[in-house]
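Q: Okay, next protein. This is DUF3616 domain-containing protein from Corallococcus terminator. I've checked the sequence twice, so it should be correct. Can you predict the 3D structure?
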Amino acid sequence: MIVTTSRRTLNLSGTQGFVSAASGLVRAGDWLYVVADDALHLAVFPVTGDAPGHTVRLFPGELPDGHVERKAAKPDLEALCRLGPSAAFAHGALLALPSGSTPARRRASVLPLNADGTLAGPPRTVDCTGLYVQLERELVALNVEGAAVTGRFLRLLNRGNGVGGVDALVDLDLDRVLGGVDSGALGPAAVRSVRRWELGEANGVRLSFTDASALPDGRVVFTATAEDSRDRVADGPVKGSAVGVLAPDGTPVYLDAVDAGLKLEGVDARVEGGRIHLLLVADADDPSVPAPLLEAVLPVPG
């Protein structure tokens, strides 16, 4: 079993409160970037210490306060990944991707980075409709939860929770993704492969992908949660979470449960001292509960 240690809660400065539904995590330089599936903002925290974070608006407007209304209107950003340097982004960028689980959840956001990992400019919206319509034809129950660059691909992880759900790896051509991000729309031509996987169960409930983070050698660390929900939109009791590793070709090579009884939704992985160190965020599906930042070390060579 993987042992986790609490590092901090994701409190925000001033009257902003805290991040609750943390769903994606990327470390860049001295900063941690977090997306939440029920917000219109990106949250930014220092890597060290527990100073409050601040937010950067990604989309205009306001979300309703009511749970049902907010769930219907939210952009549902579920994956955050770092894109490397390109013609459009000299020092790379952050790409926040939506789940695509409803037609209203198909807006992504891209933010350019400076060399030191700070944000280099305002966000730009990217329309994922063309890409997601194609993926929905392939998977039916589309629910993108993780994204990581590995080699010449952007690898998406589809979460298969609920009736009819399918856990899958979707490899997108990275050059086409970068071109689409630059032009403001991702299309179906980027799709290179779609492969279905089964991750097993935790306490009788199917484990499903919830996030991804790439390692320098092309492997991808992923999180998975066993949530007893009726479909890809509804919440349900969490029966356990796990962390795994995919080989560069997408084959699962490691999977183990975590000790925290939380719905792990975000992971950032890096190799330090020959070991894989993780930062993790969780979502309690309760807007009154601040999201925690956890850390762990995998018993897998870096």
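A: Here is a summary of the prediction. The chain has a mean pLDDT of 92. The radius of gyration is 17 Å.
Q: Noted. On to the next one.
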